């Protein structure tokens, strides 16, 4: 990482009220939902569809890579920017400045958080808000290229940086 | 929905064993062997035998695992045309060349396969190697990487390799390399949305003689038609394009196919079981977990448009998982059989069954 700060003085917003409903995927930090720890969902009618708030709860406390704030406090992510389809989730995020060099790292941290929390059946697409970044297409393309994401997650230095961003979400479950 | 398609896909083997995502499958061109590679850094080998009186389907059995020693995912594998050598391309940026320790080729009575050893490690790429492929004669090996380059290696005796050229034509990651089935023509596909074609200038070096633009996003995979007069490409733009050779060095876009909802990661073109005007069977798969099988036909005059007929389609072929690779069995007696590899770490073998 370079020492350059892309947005030296970001606006920090107040936090919205935390959703009272608890995501059933939040039980552990493991990559997969462990069947033994989960309530049995044998009856089809027991399965509640996942909603925007649940996804937002999973990603709101991710730390910004260059500020001591969460993605929610910087309004990088919001519940309104999450779309849910059938086994499909689209997360849009808004970099704080259009030249933000941290955008791919932020997007990757959102992807990893969702990968670790959601059942495998969900396909996830991550994009920057249209018009919010000068390299919008390049950032979107990289974040949704599965091979690049897989290779990035075998890069120890990058994973170290990612884990720092994801540290706060670990505490989140106990809040 | 599988409505009124003339054929069905029958699952004939469900081969578990990789601990992580399986990236690619490759059939040995000579021996009844299937190999798969994975993010778990291993290569698994399966042998198969034709139906006999005891059993009416092709039976697969696990005959060996190569731990490889690559320090990151094994992304790509390719057999040499001799069937005696296997190449592995890894995210650790190196290429491994593997041969059986026991060169006498005498499998013992139980049909056990001897151990495979790394006879050469090819270094040179700066970042992840994404695809490897042998030319039809087996004298050349091509490799490509996120470092934007394609390398052409000459295969010399005693597992010696000499780099014949480093092609720096693409402006982004190179995702796939594929050799023409009979001539020394190489195709490469890239994250820069283009396909490039290369030949060797006898007096000079390898060079790019054509760029095929048209895809609107990453080109993931390439497949030559069995006789080499067509090239198919699959892309993140959710289309498959077919390019026809209209002149020795000229390839023209002639047909676009759709039918996938997410990135089309892999495409394979086999001989199929069809008539003389047929160009064979094309199978495609990707992030939507669907497998499509098309029959491609040339119009009788060969001047008219190509015709593609969807023979079979199956969704959720690896449950909810992405499918990363598809490959037709090259043996003429099993031309209706292909294998797939998925994010579930599973390798599956399918047969196209038509009424």
Automatic annotation (TrEMBL), chain A:
Q: Which Pfam families match?
A: FeS_assembly_P
Keyword vocabulary terms for this entry: Chromosome partition
Could you state one GO cellular component term attached to this entry? intracellular protein-containing complex
Q: Per the database record, which ranges form the MIP18 family-like domain?
A: 53-126
Known InterPro entries for this protein?
FSCA_dom_sf, MIP18, MIP18-like
GO BP annotations, alphabetical order:
chromosome segregation; protein maturation
Gene3D superfamilies per the record?
6.10.250.1280, Fe-S cluster assembly (FSCA)
Q: Which domain of life is it from?
A: Eukaryota
Which family does the UniProt entry place this protein in? Belongs to the MIP18 family.
Name this polypeptide is given: FAM96B protein
Which species does this protein come from?
Rhizopogon vinicolor AM-OR11-026
UniProtKB/TrEMBL annotation, chain B:
Cite the Gene3D superfamilies for this sequence. YVTN repeat-like/Quinoprotein amine dehydrogenase
Q: Does the keyword Repeat apply?
A: yes
- Where does the record place its WD repeats? 15-49, 67-108, 122-156, 167-198, 212-244
Q: Which SMART domains match?
A: WD40 (SM00320)
Q: Which Pfam families match?
A: WD40 (PF00400)
One GO cellular component term: cytosolic [4Fe-4S] assembly targeting complex
Entries under SUPFAM superfamilies matching the protein:
WD40 repeat-like
Q: Which UniProt keywords apply?
A: Repeat, WD repeat
The residues forming the signal peptide are none
Q: One biological-process term from Gene Ontology?
A: iron-sulfur cluster assembly
Q: Does the keyword RNA-binding apply?
A: no
What family does this chain come from, according to its entry?
Answer: Belongs to the WD repeat CIA1 family.
The protein's role, per its UniProt record = Essential component of the cytosolic iron-sulfur (Fe/S) protein assembly machinery. Required for the maturation of extramitochondrial Fe/S proteins.
Official protein name in the record: Probable cytosolic iron-sulfur protein assembly protein 1
Provenance organism: Rhizopogon vinicolor AM-OR11-026
């Amino acid at each position: 990482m370079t020492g350059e700060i892309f947005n030296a003085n970001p606006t920090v917003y107040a936090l919205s009220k935390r959703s009272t409903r608890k995501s059933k995927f939040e039980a552990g930090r493991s990559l997969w939902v462990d069947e033994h720890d989960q309530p049995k969902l044998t009856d089809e009618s027991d399965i509640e569809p996942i909603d925007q708030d649940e996804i937002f709860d999973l990603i709101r406390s991710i730390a910004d890579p260059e500020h001591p704030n969460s993605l929610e406090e910087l309004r990088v992510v919001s519940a309104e920017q999450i779309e849910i389809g059938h086994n499909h989730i689209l997360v849009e995020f808004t970099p704080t400045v259009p030249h933000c060099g941290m955008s791919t790292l932020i997007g990757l941290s959102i992807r990893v958080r969702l990968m670790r929390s959601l059942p495998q059946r969900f396909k996830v697409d991550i994009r920057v808000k249209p018009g919010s970044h000068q390299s919008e297409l390049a950032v979107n393309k990289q974040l949704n290229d599965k091979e690049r994401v897989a290779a990035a997650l075998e890069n120890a230095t990058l994973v170290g940086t990612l884990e720092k961003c994801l540290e706060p979400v670990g505490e989140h479950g106990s809040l | 929905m599988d409505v009124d398609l003339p054929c069905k896909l029958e699952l004939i083997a469900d081969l578990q064993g990789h601990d992580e995502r399986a990236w690619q499958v490759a059939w040995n061109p000579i021996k009844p062997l299937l190999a798969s590679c994975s993010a778990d850094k291993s290569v698994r080998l399966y042998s198969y035998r034709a139906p006999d009186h005891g059993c009416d389907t092709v039976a697969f059995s696990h005959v060996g695992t190569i731990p490889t020693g690559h320090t990151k995912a094994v992304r790509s594998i390719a057999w040499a045309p001799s069937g005696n050598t296997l190449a592995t391309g890894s995210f650790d940026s190196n290429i491994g060349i593997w041969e059986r320790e026991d060169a006498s080729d005498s499998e013992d009575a139980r049909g056990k396969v001897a151990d495979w050893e790394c006879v050469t490690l090819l270094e040179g790429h700066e970042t992840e190697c994404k695809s490897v492929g042998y030319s039809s004669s087996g004298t050349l090996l091509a490799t490509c990487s996120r470092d934007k380059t394609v390398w052409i290696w000459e295969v010399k005796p005693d597992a010696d390799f000499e780099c014949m050229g480093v092609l720096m034509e693409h402006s982004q990651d190179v995702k796939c390399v594929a050799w023409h089935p009979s001539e020394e023509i190489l195709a490469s596909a890239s994250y820069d949305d283009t396909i490039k074609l290369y030949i060797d200038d006898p007096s000079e070096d390898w060079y790019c003689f054509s760029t095929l633009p048209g895809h609107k996003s990453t080109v993931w995979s390439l497949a030559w038609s069995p006789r080499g007069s067509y090239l198919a490409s699959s892309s993140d733009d959710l289309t498959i394009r077919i390019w026809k050779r209209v002149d020795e060095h000229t390839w023209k876009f002639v047909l676009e196919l759709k039918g996938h909802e997410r990135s089309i990661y892999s495409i394979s073109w086999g001989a199929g079981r069809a008539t003389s005007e047929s160009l064979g069977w094309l199978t495609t798969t990707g992030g939507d977990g669907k497998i499509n099988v098309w029959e491609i036909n040339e119009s009788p005059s060969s001047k008219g448009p190509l015709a593609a007929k969807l023979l079979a389609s199956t969704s959720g072929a690896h449950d909810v998982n992405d499918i990363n690779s598809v490959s037709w069995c090259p043996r003429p007696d099993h031309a209706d059989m292909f294998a797939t590899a998925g994010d579930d770490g599973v390798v599956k073998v399918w047969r196209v069954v038509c009424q």
